[in-house]
């Protein structure tokens, strides 16, 4: 519970003379009402508290200065960095509104995300509401008795007239819920967190948890890693040491530190995966045992590097469409290949340069990106700029058929960045590279948004007209990006399968993705252009037999080895309960992975090029 005595100096400071008299009178009368009566006209105050005997809910009290007339209270529909309309208002329960003297006012819902209140004169509007927190993820909020994560856009109402005003946040929580962690600074009395405006409030996730935090300083800049859910499978000290290496490498990459206060890695070793970037913090989700497995731990480090790279690329240097956020509607940009894809290229690369992964591990990650690009028929349908615009309807809402109709701007963005970087290095005999382009972009656009041709202009400046032409082909067309040429320059070669066993048998297939969640052999997706598509297979078909042989999960691999690509056979299937037969021609199975290997003629010059890219010495043949 907040003490008014502690708040007193702050309130007096914030009060206008007229209101000061009212405060004095109220105190003399011995009546203590809500702090709202003392709200200065130039700030918004929010208070979070926990309802009793009610999990997964948080109570919010927001105090807005309003003028006479109609005020709209608005709940955001999405949160920056995660491009999906989430309609956060769906979780708002029991909104009541009163004046600062406690007199309640009628409130009317007028659209999915807005309420109106009519006030006779200017004053302070106090909104009390309860918010349900549906699930733990980086984009919304989660409240439980063991820990809470509050992402502001999913919890705090705003008004258009007050969103530019300073916002203050108090959290009323029993000590057994743990401490409050957020990148927002505390007020002088340590009672409230301060944000310059609503944008900063929603850009500053709040964690309430009893959790270990590990702090370190690099070149005078403070950092902290908070490990919510740290357990016997999660070594917090080691994680902090590795995060520090990522920080050192990334700061050295950009050569300029835009941070103005301590930066927080808010890590939840609880469940899930992913991260979301903010100006002075990031929220990261990971599994409880993710550190126990090397590949999974590298994945976590990759998320750390990715989110921290965003401090520069997307938080400060951002597309013009994100110059200011409109929380109520989609903000379309065709630049997510640059904001996200290029960040995905550098996350793995910076892990290598920080010495956290080996050159071999880096090549496995790169081969996996190329694999995920080339095995998606959707790459032939949609350029990466269009996939970026479609983020709102495709990327965050994957469907069974997504592999056929779109491509991830993360994956393709990472692959085309590798191709671009190799081009720049090759054509300048190692004098220019993508690092230089990014730093130049940052020097031009760290304090003003960039237009959609900005990157191309900087690229041409560094790498010449040819680089610009290559970029257009990479981002505006579905043409083959040419990874083989890029790999060749490093003395490397991509092995795309086909699958072999003991170097002999070639597996066949007919281009379907099985629905692992279903009993029996049910097709989830028929890949566009595959022999299965030509034969007329559909998603939902249950394949009962191939060539008269009963098909089960444990007989699939054996059966497919009987056939060579080009062989004809028949499929017995059940389609919505009706038994049918289809003729099928086998084709080469999609390999389960690609590998990058040294090509013939690999030599010293290739080692030099790889060392320059990977930032570490290659010992012997990598
Ligand atoms: Zn990202």
Describe the protein's architecture and organization.
Helix content is about 30%, strand content about 25%. The N terminus is likely disordered. The longest helix has 19 residues. It is globular, with a radius of gyration of 28 Å. The protein starts with a helix and ends in an 8-residue tail after the last helix. The strands form 9 sheets. The protein has a 7-stranded mixed beta sheet with strand order 5-4-8-2-1-11-13. The chain has a 5-stranded mixed beta sheet with strand order 15-16-17-19-18, with helices on one face. α4 links the parallel β16 and β17. The chain has 17 helices and 31 strands. It is an alpha+beta fold and about 625 residues long.
Features:
five-stranded mixed beta sheet, seven-stranded mixed beta sheet, 622 residues, alpha+beta, 31% helix, 17 helices
Say which molecules are bound, naming each kind only once.
zinc ion
- Poorly predicted runs of 5 or more residues: 1-38
Q: Specify the helix fraction band.
A: 25-40%
Shape: globular
| Structural class by helix and strand composition | alpha+beta
How are strands sequenced across the largest beta sheet? Answer: 5-4-8-2-1-11-13
How large, in whole angstroms, is the Cα Rg? 28 Å
What count of helical segments does DSSP give?
A: 17
The biggest beta sheet reads: 7 strands, mixed
Number of strands: 31
Overall average residue pLDDT? 91
What percentage of amino acids are in beta strands?
15-25%
The span between the termini is 61 Å
């Amino acid at each position: 519970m907040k003490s008014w005595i502690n708040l007193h100096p702050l309130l007096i400071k914030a009060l206008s003379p007229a209101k000061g008299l009212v405060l004095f009178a109220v105190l003399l009368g011995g009546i203590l009402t809500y702090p709202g009566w003392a709200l200065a006209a130039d700030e918004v105050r929010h208070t979070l508290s926990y309802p009793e005997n009610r999990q997964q809910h948080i109570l919010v009290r927001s105090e807005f200065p309003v003028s006479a007339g109609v005020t709209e209270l608005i709940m955001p529909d999405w949160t920056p960095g995660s491009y999906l309309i989430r309609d956060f208002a769906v979780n708002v329960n029991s909104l009541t509104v009163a004046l600062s003297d406690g007199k309640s006012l009628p409130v009317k819902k007028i659209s999915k995300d807005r309420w109106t209140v009519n006030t006779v004169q200017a004053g302070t509007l106090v909104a009390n509401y309860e918010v349900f927190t549906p699930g733990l993820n980086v984009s919304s909020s989660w409240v439980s008795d063991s820990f809470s994560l509050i992402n502001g856009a999913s919890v705090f109402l705003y008004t258009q007239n007050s969103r530019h005003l300073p916002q203050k946040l108090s959290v009323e929580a029993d000590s057994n819920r743990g401490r409050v962690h957020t990148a927002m600074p505390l007020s002088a009395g340590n009672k409230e967190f301060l944000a310059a405006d609503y944008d900063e409030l929603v850009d500053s996730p709040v964690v309430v948890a009893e959790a270990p935090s590990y702090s370190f300083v690099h070149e005078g800049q403070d950092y902290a890693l908070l490990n919510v859910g740290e357990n016997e499978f999660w070594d917090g000290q080691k994680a902090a040491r590795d995060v520090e290496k990522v920080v050192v490498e990334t700061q050295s990459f950009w050569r300029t530190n835009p941070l103005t206060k301590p930066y927080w890695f808010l890590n939840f070793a609880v469940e899930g995966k992913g991260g979301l970037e903010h100006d002075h913090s990031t929220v990261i989700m990971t599994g409880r045992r993710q550190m126990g497995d090397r590949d999974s731990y590298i994945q976590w480090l990759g998320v750390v590097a990715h989110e921290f790279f965003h401090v520069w690329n997307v938080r400060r240097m951002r597309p013009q469409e994100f110059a200011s956020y409109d929380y109520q509607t989609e903000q379309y940009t065709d630049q997510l290949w640059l904001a996200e894809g290029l960040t995905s290229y550098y996350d793995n690369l910076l892990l290598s340069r920080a010495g956290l992964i080996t050159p071999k591990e880096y090549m496995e990650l790169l081969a996996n990106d190329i694999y995920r690009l080339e095995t998606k028929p959707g790459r032939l349908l949609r350029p990466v700029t269009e996939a970026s615009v479609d983020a709102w309807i495709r990327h965050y809402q994957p469907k069974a058929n997504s592999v056929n109709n779109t491509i991830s701007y993360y994956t393709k963005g990472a692959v085309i960045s590798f191709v671009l970087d190799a081009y720049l290095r090759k054509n300048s005999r190692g004098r220019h590279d993508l690092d230089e382009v990014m730093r130049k972009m940052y020097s031009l656009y760290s304090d003003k948004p960039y237009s959609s041709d900005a990157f191309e202009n900087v690229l041409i400046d560094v790498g010449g007209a040819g680089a610009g032409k290559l970029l257009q082909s990479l981002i505006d067309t579905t043409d083959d990006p040419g990874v083989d040429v890029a790999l060749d320059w490093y003395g490397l070669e991509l092995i795309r399968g086909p699958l072999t066993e003991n170097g002999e048998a070639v597996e066949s297939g007919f281009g379907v993705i099985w629905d692992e969640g279903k009993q029996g052999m049910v097709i989830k997706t028929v890949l566009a252009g595959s022999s299965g598509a030509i034969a007329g297979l559909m998603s939902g078909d249950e394949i009962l037999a191939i060539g008269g042989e009963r098909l089960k999960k444990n007989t699939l691999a054996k059966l497919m080895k009987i056939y060579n690509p080009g062989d004809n056979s028949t499929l017995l299937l059940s389609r919505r309960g009706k038994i049918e037969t289809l003729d099928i021609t086998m084709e080469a199975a999609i390999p389960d992975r690609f590998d990058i290997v040294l090509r013939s003629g690999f030599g010293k010059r290739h080692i030099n090029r790889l060392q320059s890219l990977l930032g570490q010495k290659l010992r012997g043949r990598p």
